[in-house]
Structures are given as C-alpha cells and as structure tokens.
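Quick one, tokens below:
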C-alpha cells in the first residue's frame, strides 16, 4: 500500500491547535508534520508534536481492559474483557447508588483531548446518572473572569492583528513554550519595527525575543498595572476622547484607586525602579497601537482574577482599542459558535447534585463529607500528577473503599490506583471537531488508523456504560460524526463566512465573532467600574502570608505538556528545580546536587540547577513529572495548595512558598546538561 497523507489536528491543551499532516503507510503513522496550508500555524510544530507517531504507536499503549489484582498504586493488573469490565462497573455503581446515593459518584476530566465531542462526551452520562458535578477550573478560569469583569463578552482581537502593533507586551507569557505561533506573529511585527516587552517573574525562554524584560515580584501584577495608570493620569497621557465615549468608571478609578499607587509605592510592591515605571508608562502612552497579550501564570495566584482585571483595564486609558493592532487579549473564546447544550445535555441532570472543584480533589477524597465520594471515574486527566496537594490526592486514591475507574492511553500515575483501567484511543483513531483558544480557527478530523487492540474513545465508552446502566435516551446511540453535525449551528452568525466544503475536507476554517458593537458589556462600554462585583473597581489583593522564603513557580516545560508525553522518555532530562546562585550558596548547596524542596504540605526531591538570571526569592520547577521518572517518591504538586483564586474557582499553582535543603542521606551530585 502506498503512503497516504491526511490532515488532522493537534488534540492537546495548547492555544495553537496546530494543523497536522499525517503520513499513513499500511495502517501505521510513519510521519507527522505541520500543515503549511493551515492559516495560523503555517506548517511548523513544537518539539512535543514533531514525533507524535512515537506516542501513537508506543509499546506502552494500553490495549485491553485491566482489573486490579494488587494493592492500589502498585500497578498490578490482569486482563479482562470489555463485557466483564462493563458488568463490574455497572454493578458497583448500582450498589453504591443504592447504599449512598448517586452524588457519591464523581467524574474527573479535563483537557487530555481538546476535541469538542470527546472532551465533553461524559457530561450527558453523568448528568443522567445523577453524579456530583465537577467544576473544571484547574487551568486559568480566573483569567477569563478578569477579562469579563472589564470587557464582558467582547470577543478578543484576532491574533493576526498583532502584526500591526508597534508595542507588544507579553505579560506573564512564556510564548516560546506555550504559544509559539503567536510568537511568530510577534517576531514578524518586530521585523516591521515593533518593540517587544516581557513582563514576568523571571526571564525565561521568551526573553530572547524581547527588547526589554521587566521582572516583577510574584503576585504584584495588579500593582504594576495600576501604577502605570497612575502615571498616565498624573502626566496627562490618557486619551480623554476615547475615555469619554467608550469607558465606564474612569472617574471613580481615578479618584478612589489610583492615588494609592504612586511610583514609589509601586516600586516597593513590584521591584521595578521608579525611573523604569515612568519610562514604561510614557512609552506605552506614546505607542500608536500598543497590544498586551496576557498569559496564564498571572492568573494562578489567589489574586489572579483581580490582577488580570487591572491589566485588561490599561488599554482603555490610552485608547489603544481605537487603533488597528492595539488592545489586549486574555485568550480566544469561541464556545458561543457551537450548540454545546446538545452534547452537554444539562436537561438530563437528575436533581440538584453538589459541585466539587477539581483543584480540591484531595479534600473531596479524604475529608469527611456528606455524602462521601465512593467512586471516581477519571478520563482525559491524570490527577495523581496534576492536581494540587498531591499527598492528599494520593491518600484519597489509595482508599480501598473508593471504586476508581480510569480510561487512559498509558499507565499513568492515576491509572496505577485504579480498580479498573479501560484502554483509550488517540486523536488519530476517532472523529472530532476542534476549536482553538488562541485563534478563531475550527477544524474537523476523521479516524486515520485503527485503534490498538480494544481501545475505545470516550464517546464509545459512555455509550456502552449508558446501555449497561439501562439508559434509553437516544443521545447515547449517537456516533461522533452525528454529534459533530448537531454541534455545527449553521444559522449561528459565527459561521456566516465558513466554507463548509473545506471544513468537511479537514481544512481549518475561520469563525466570525459578532461585530454589531465594539464592546459586548451591559453598558456597551469598557467597564472599569463593574457594579455586579463585590469589588467594583480593580485594586491589588494581597497574597497569602507564609514563613517560607521562596516563591515556587511551576513553570511550563518545553518538551512536555502538564503530565503528557512522558511515554516518550527520550524528550526530557532530570527533574530539576532552579535557584539563583546566591540562594544556593546561602544554603551551603551545590549546582547539580539532589535536594529536598519542602513546605507544610510535603517534600519533593529535585536535582538543583543554578540560574544566574533568576531573581532571589524564587524557585522554578518546570513540568509535571510522572512519579516513576522522579528522583524521589513525589513530584511538584506535593508542594502546591488546594486554595482557589479570588474569582472563577481556579487553581493557585504559582501562589505557594517553599524552602530548599540538602538531603540528610543519600546525597548525589550530577552536573546537569
């Protein structure tokens, strides 16, 4: 059989939603490359996806259902048939529901696949079952809350517009690791003369693409934004005409908030010198079309939503929105283009079940609740690695009275604790439709190869479980392609300019966000004053106080994505934590030494890396590692807390403090590459 080339989509949790070209030879994927005809990603891929075929055909893929035959966490299983697995699951659930009620069942899923059908396939089933609801906010919902507090439902600018900017501010965004195709547009704007600033808590890989780097103290971003606004007002640098016609609440902000943020105060709060603050404000005001791109890190503090809100307010003061290439983005939302209720099926919900926040899984599984969680069904996630407060999560997963089912491609840390493991398909083995949160593209894909062994998709499994539980609703008979057709609302104005022939052929098409008014807020204006919120104006909210001296930043990795891609052992090195050399010397430690990073929640072994560019007071740990590749028994989320953001119920992965010490015994020294 000759090699065939097909279009597909990167399914992982990344704003770029890359177009792929998949070469298939005799039923096997032999090469994965970028689609040069994809309008946004233009043919190049990140290091994670350049060899996606190694993931697809990994010998570690799960191919049949497994039944636990050892202790929880030991990873000891025996094969079983699908019929036996379904019978055991449905029997256990019926018994649990009869004894304790359906709320004692909890689904746990997130963004293991970003396909709209497969990601949301379980909602209807668990609604019909009457299970507890899961608040899915482990990433950055606070960022969305900060945006909507000021901009309402206003669609974010198309990322291509940044090429027309003359000042681009990457605020808390390591675009080199998390948004490489937007960074490409930034680089193109730079070639045309644009200046690029990076504002973050340390200079990371993206710093190489910036003209200026401003290092701020963790959690002080709102102070910086408000301090810049103070200078803009003080020095008469605001666009009074734009404010008068398009902005609500400027006078209240000017009178009640900004006087609290003079340069000297803001300098102490942020660590940026007074002269630099003055320079930043004046250059921002002088730009023809300044554009701010807000990353996720700023929102992962207890004050995350308020910090984003303050940053989003900045462009209003200088009228940046009136210029092509000017304004701000906190991410693209195109969910309004799809008839999501047809797949999520809230109408099937039984009663009024409680809601459990996924970032507080540890508490849900270990602390006394009424009723207790008695069964956990995990798909498209790996909470044993990615959920905060890992030690509490693992203690919950180890409960013998917790009936756990995990649907997965690989034997992850979570799967090792399952009573039953079900084999899952990859993105190249199922139908789906994908939308991006970094641009307005949509792309449909079809299965290109057969699943390995007996692997099944999320939708297939929930259909089988529905039948096993005796559910008769027609929804549970739908195939993925039928649901895709229902999701595409051709009468919705978002689809007005879509070429449906191109969509059916697997090409990316572009949605059209509504343009009937510039700002989609209740007032029709940018709302610096928001009367619907407890805090009607933006201000700095303090972080939690801690005696530990180092702020822990759980940074994105270049070659892994959360806990994904660890099946490909060739792409990573040692699990390390980076500190400024001064911090290392003060503790009597050495570069390359194995150390313990610790706080009140636990301790984690890392290899120590000295980084001259890091500010003192910071510890940076990149990536979310599988336990079997870690130097010790735990990984980074043994150090993170289950506390939530000020709005949105988001995780606070960046708002944790730690210390570092040498190993009491078994110290090892290894110079890292």
């Amino acid at each position: 059989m000759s090699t065939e080339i097909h279009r597909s989509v990167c399914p992982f949790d990344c704003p770029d939603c890359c177009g792929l070209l998949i070469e298939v030879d005799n039923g096997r994927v032999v090469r994965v490359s970028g689609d040069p005809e994809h309008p946004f990603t233009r043919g190049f891929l990140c290091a994670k996806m350049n060899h996606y075929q190694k993931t697809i055909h990994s010998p570690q893929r799960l191919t049949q259902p497994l039944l636990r035959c050892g202790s929880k966490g030991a990873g000891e299983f025996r094969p079983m048939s699908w019929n036996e697995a379904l019978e055991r699951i449905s029997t256990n659930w019926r018994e649990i529901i009869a004894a304790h009620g359906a709320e004692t069942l909890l689904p746990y899923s997130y963004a293991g696949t970003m396909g709209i059908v497969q990601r949301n396939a379980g909602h209807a089933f668990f609604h019909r079952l009457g299970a507890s609801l899961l608040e899915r906010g482990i990433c950055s919902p606070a960022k969305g809350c900060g945006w909507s507090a000021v901009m309402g439902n206003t669609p974010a600018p198309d990322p291509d517009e940044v090429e027309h900017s003359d000042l681009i501010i990457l605020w808390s965004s390591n675009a080199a690791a998390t948004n490489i195709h937007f960074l490409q547009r930034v680089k193109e704007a730079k070639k045309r003369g644009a200046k690029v600033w990076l504002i973050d808590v340390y200079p990371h890989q993206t710093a190489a693409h910036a003209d200026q780097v401003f290092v701020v103290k963790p959690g002080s971003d709102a102070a910086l934004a408000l301090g810049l606004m103070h200078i803009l007002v003080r020095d008469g640098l605001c666009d009074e005409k734009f404010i008068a016609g398009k902005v609500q609440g400027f006078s209240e902000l000017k009178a009640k908030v900004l006087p609290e943020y003079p340069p000297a105060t803001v300098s102490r709060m942020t660590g940026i010198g007074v002269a630099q603050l003055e320079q930043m404000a004046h250059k921002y005001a002088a730009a023809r079309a300044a554009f701010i791109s807000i990353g996720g890190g700023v929102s992962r503090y207890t004050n995350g939503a308020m910090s984003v809100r303050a940053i989003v307010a900045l462009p209003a003061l200088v009228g940046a929105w009136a210029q092509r290439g000017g304004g701000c983005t906190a991410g693209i939302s195109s969910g309004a283009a799809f008839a999501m209720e047809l797949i999520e099926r809230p109408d099937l919900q039984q009663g009024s079940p409680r809601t459990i926040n996924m970032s507080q899984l540890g508490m849900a599984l270990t602390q006394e609740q009424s009723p207790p969680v008695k069964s956990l069904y995990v798909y498209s996630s790996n909470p044993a690695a990615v959920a905060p407060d890992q030690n509490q999560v693992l203690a919950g997963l180890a409960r013998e009275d917790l009936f756990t089912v995990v649907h997965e491609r690989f034997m992850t840390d979570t799967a090792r604790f399952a009573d039953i493991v079900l084999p899952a398909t990859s993105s190249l083995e199922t139908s789906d439709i994908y939308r991006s949160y970094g641009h307005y593209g949509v792309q449909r894909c079809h299965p290109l190869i057969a699943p390995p062994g007996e692997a099944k998709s999320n939708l297939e499994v929930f259909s089988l479980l529905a039948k096993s539980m005796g559910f008769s609703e027609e929804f549970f008979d739908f195939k993925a392609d039928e649901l895709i057709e229902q999701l595409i609302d051709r009468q919705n104005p978002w689809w007005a300019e879509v070429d449906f022939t191109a969509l059916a052929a697997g090409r990316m098409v572009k949605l059209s966000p509504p343009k009937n008014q510039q700002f989609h807020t209740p007032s029709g204006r940018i709302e610096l004053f928001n009367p619907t919120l407890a805090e009607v104006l933006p201000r700095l909210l303090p972080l939690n106080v801690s005696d530990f001296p180092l702020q822990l930043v759980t940074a994105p990795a270049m070659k892994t994505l959360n806990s994904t891609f660890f099946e490909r052992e060739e792409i990573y090195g040692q699990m390390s934590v980076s500190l400024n050399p001064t911090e290392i010397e003060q503790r009597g430690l050495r570069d390359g030494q194995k150390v313990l990073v610790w706080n009140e929640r636990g301790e984690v072994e890392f290899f120590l890396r000295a980084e001259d560019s890091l500010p003192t007071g910071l510890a940076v740990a990149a990536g979310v590692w599988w336990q079997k590749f870690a130097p010790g028994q735990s990984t980074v989320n043994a150090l993170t807390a289950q506390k939530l953001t000020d709005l949105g119920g988001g995780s606070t992965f960046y708002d944790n403090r730690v210390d570092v010490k040498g190993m009491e015994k078994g110290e090892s020294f290894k110079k890292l590459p």
